[in-house]
Amino acid sequence: MTKKDNAKIKQFEDEAFSDPKGTELTTSLGVKVEDNQNSLKAGERGATLLEDFLLRDKLIHFDRERIPERVVHARAVGAHGYFEAYEGNDKWTKADFLTNTKTQTPIFVRISTVQGGRGSADVVRDVRGFSIKFYTQQGNYDLVGNNIPVFFIQDAIKFPDFVHAVKPEDHNEIPTGQSAHDTFWDFISLNTETAHMTTWVMSDRAIPRNLRSIQGFGVHTFRLINAKNEAHLVKFHWTPKQGVAQVVWDEALKLNGKDPDFHRRDLTDAINQGNYPEWVLGAQIFTEEEAAKWDFDVLDPTKLVPEELVPVTPLGKFVLNRNTDEFFAETEQVAFSPANVVPGIDFSNDPLLQGRLFSYTDTHLHRLGTPNFNQIPINKPVCPYHTNRRGGFANHDIHKGQANYEPNSVDGNYPREAKGNPQAFTSYAEKVEGSKLRIRPESFADHFSQATLNYKSLKKHEQQHIKDAYAFELSKVKREEIRKRVIDQILVNIDLDLAQFVADELGLDAPKKPTAKLHEAKIKTSEKLTIEAFPAPDIKQRKIAVLVHDGANSASVDAVKKWAESENAIAEVLAPNAAPVKSKNGKEIAVDGRQNGEPSVTYDAVVVIDGNNLDTFKKDGVARHYVLETYKHLKPFVLLGDKEALLDTLGLEPDAAIFTTDDFKAVAKDFKAAIQDHRLWDREEKAKAVPA
Q1: Is the model's pTM score more than 0.70?
Q2: Annotated binding residues for heme, as ranges?
Q3: Which member of 89, 146, 256, 493 is catalytic?
Q4: How confident is the model over 244-272, as pLDDT tens digits?
Q5: What residues bind heme, as annotated (predicted)?
Q6: Is the CB of residue 257 less than 8 Å from the CB of residue 212?
Q7: 447 noted as active-site residue
Q8: Among 344, 375, 406, which residue terminates a domain?
């Protein structure tokens, strides 16, 4: 083929997949469509003709454009980005993307809820799936994790049972997007291995403020293999540079009603505005010999490795800097699997991981309808690939040569095995011996010590939120015997005070001592389990609502907006309606939205602008509610000039996150610090008495 031919093909591809601006509508085969409004009929009012290939071409696709949604992780958002490795990883692994510091590896990330379907809300109490596809030069590698470091069950054979229990109940398809129902807690109460995971799901980790501020974990133990064929066990972590943040429960409920797409919108907006979220990809790296000395089994996915035993080693960073062009083609069709590894990364015998190695690929065959799902652009590797596979539904690869088998002689035995090539994948030669058994190892028998570790490691307000969450969820369970069993078999073995609080809230009795033989853990608390261990370094992409009415001080509005821009934060001016307001000197102030349409729950802080309109503000129920709700949700706010009087009007006590001043610049530094802290937890008890 000549250079001219190649140029023509390239031109055709560019034209075929270019921006649609300026193009004309065609069929799926490129035939231009002159009339897209009317089907072909026999006469003006006659029957539609079978020969109308334009109609058939359109309907055939429409009838099939919905594929089965994922059983779990159906609700998601995706984004593109890149990964950059840090120096020094070659002592752990030969994986090129982790050792080559001169190249950026393209990635695609999908973040999802677990329980709800595609139409459910974002800010539900749930685990968040957090999966990364690395398009490396050695093939695609998928790191398929969650925002919680452990899981509910120890063995993959229980995975269908767990999912069936947590999903909407079969008799009425209720509830969607939440676990507060009988079958979930029935399963929990009868499977005590779930105890540790439920302390995480009942915690603030399960109601994140946004997806830019969640941690990620590989959950399972994997192996890293270096060029000398030396192996280390590894637990993967990804830590947000934005810090970890959460919502309070009342806020979560309101967000789901007022903006069910809040998480997806926030991530999309941040990327569009150039505030690209970043994470550090790290790993806890240890040997088999070290793991054998610990009082828990690293193959048990309901256990984490406390960082007091093994600190996290940073391996590199990844950045999300491009939104998807089409949700279906990318986010919906992306196919992740923990079985997708590259040379330098291998598996452990974690029984939940072992089942996932089969289950994910089997799911893609069902959802995407073809063994050729890896030829879909979002799944396709960026490195050369050569298989001898032919045919199958939706096969796009065109192979040359006669042989579709190996070895062969008709095509010179190509493609052939990569014998002796250090870039080829070879499984780690782990010694295996023993009888074939269906058994749970004794080292998996401790179901409570790490649940207690997690609970005891948290701050008092975090512990209280867990108590409140258990009480709320179990109050939705109709069968008293299930509620009682959760208290007697789960909670009392985690913490007696936790069990007593929940029992009191439900009008039940709690045992006065544990009901199981408890393991005495060597590590009692771990400082990296609290959200406060991951503070925000700045207020990048934090949103500030600026409340104005006619008569507002335009100079104050300008000062707030200028300051926010300098901090890469977002200040939006909200008025009673979408029309501009008149400042006290007659100047028009442009507004970004209505106070009633852009609720306080979608902002991180509030500034109430001064002016000659205090009485107007006091009479405005929406504006009053805005400040009250901000106070109740423990967020910082500024009352400028005459608006300080709102403290008395609304019955609010001054605290460290309320700022009153005539000059915004005077409090800007402290206001920023309060926004970085995100919440003033010391306000929480007082806020409960304030109606909103």
Answers
A1: yes
A2: 70, 110, 159, 356, 360, 367
A3: 146
A4: 999 999 999 999 999 999 999 999 999 99
A5: 70, 110, 159, 356, 360, 367
A6: no
A7: no
A8: 375
